[in-house]
Every structure is written in structure tokens, then in C-alpha cells.
Amino acid sequence: MSLRLFDSHCHLNLPELAPQMDAHWQAAQAVGVAALLIPAVEQAAWQPLLQLRQQQPDWQPLLQLRQQQPDWQIALGIHPWWAAQHSLQVVTELETMLREQQDAICAIGEIGLDFALAPETFSMQQQLFEAQLALAARLNKPVILHHRKSQPHLLAAIKRENFADGGILHAFSGSPEQGQAFIDCGFKLGIGGTISYERAAKTRRAVEQLPLSAFVLETDAPAMPLAGFQGQTNTPAQLALVFQHFCQLRPEPPEQLAEALWHNTQQVLRLDPTSAG
Ligand SMILES: [Zn+2]
């Protein structure tokens, strides 16, 4: 039996992982990771990510014949931690890039709101987030959402915008009810190392109680190490452990879980031509 897993959130391009990018990818593949999504955090990352994406062998006739997608997907956007380093003009530049590279960029991200940061950053965070969400709506792209102390504000913006293209609420933590509110808006919940901590009772309950169709897996490498690995650099190969923890919280057999999670990720990122919509 071979399982295929999709790391829906992995910062392979950040300095902690980039020097050993190929080794990390090989280690991840060895434990069943068959695809990953790298979201940008700042404008300086966009062009290098596009180049990484274009090195992917999706031009190969065999892949085209099987209608397979390349293994590495990318999302471009401005993360709230980097908001202060940009002006709103950056969203116009993002739009130009997205229009030129429609097929290479599967989502807008990582975007969102982080209200654990200093309050003086909130106004710029909010402006950049709303402009990027509006851009995603115009271009019909899903979004990759970052949240910290901001879930209600994200939901409010999604509803104000009538945003209907969905995406992934990355690094989900919260109750089943909090998760359901995003599912109702067309989002999947990104489940990562958080569920390996016994103290994450609410999040673990959400994994137990919400429908399987609600979830995708992620590592958020190099961040968010699992329980037992605190202080270490997280890597995409750890997705296999995230999956094991996920399996412990669900009644379905691992093969069924892996297949559903893979399908959920393909669907929300619109990578599978047979599951569009
Ligand atoms: Zn991230």
C-alpha cells in the first residue's frame, strides 16, 4: 500500500530550508509526500517562486497525457508579518503577475490578519488583506489565510467581499464551531502539528467532529514543530507524522483518509480537472 500526501503549506524557500531544498524534498517523498504548496510571504519571493514552479516538469508529455499536475505548487501574496514593508501599490503588481502567469499560480497567499502583532500594524494589515482578497475575487483564485487572534475579522471581510472562491484556513486551531464558520464560507481547514499536542483539545475535537471533506494537511515548515520536536526546524517530511496524528483522531482507515485529504487539497486548489468547482 502506498499513500500519497499533499503538504498544503510549506515554506521550502525560506533560509532555514532552502539550502537543502532537494534533500528535504527527497526525504518528504520517501515518506509519501507527493506534492506541496509553497506560499510566498513577501514580494521579493514572487519571482524566485515562479522560477521554482517553472522548473517543475509539467511540460513533460507523459504528465500532460495523464493530466497530472506538477509536484510543487505556489501561491503569491503578502503575509501580514511583512505588511509594513510594502505599500498598497504591491497589490497592483501582484495583479499584473497573476494575469501574466494564471496557470502557474494556484492561489493568492499567504495573506491574512495577525492581531498578536503590534496594534500600529493593524491598519496596514487590514488594507493589504482586503485588497488581496478583492483581487482574489476578481481573478477567481482561492486564498491561503493566516490567522492569529483574527478569525472573526477574517470572516467579516470574507462576508463583506462576498468572497466565494474559498481556500485554506492555514494552521487551523479552534473549536468545531469556529471551523464550521469557515467551512460554510467554502474553506478547508489546514491541519498541522498543532494536533500532536494533547493541550490542543479544541482543535483535536474539531478534527474528530467535522466532516472529512473539511480538511487538508500541512507542516508549515520550517515553523510549527510537532510535539516532541520543539525547538527543531520543521520539515515537509514531518507531514507523515501529522497524518499519523490525524489518523488517530478519525474512525476511517488510513488509506481512505489519505485519499480524501489528497482529493480535498486538489479540489480547493483546483488542480484536478475532474473535480473542478
Ligand atoms: Zn505560512
UniProtKB/TrEMBL annotation:
InterPro entries: DNase_TatD-rel_CS, Metal_Hydrolase, TatD-like. It is an enzyme of class 3 (hydrolase). Belongs to the metallo-dependent hydrolases superfamily. TatD-type hydrolase family. This is TatD family hydrolase. Its EC number is 3.1.-.-. Pfam families: TatD_DNase. It comes from Alkalimonas mucilaginosa. GO terms for molecular function: hydrolase activity. Gene3D superfamilies: Metal-dependent hydrolases. CDD domains: TatD_DNAse. It comes from the Bacteria. Keywords: Hydrolase.
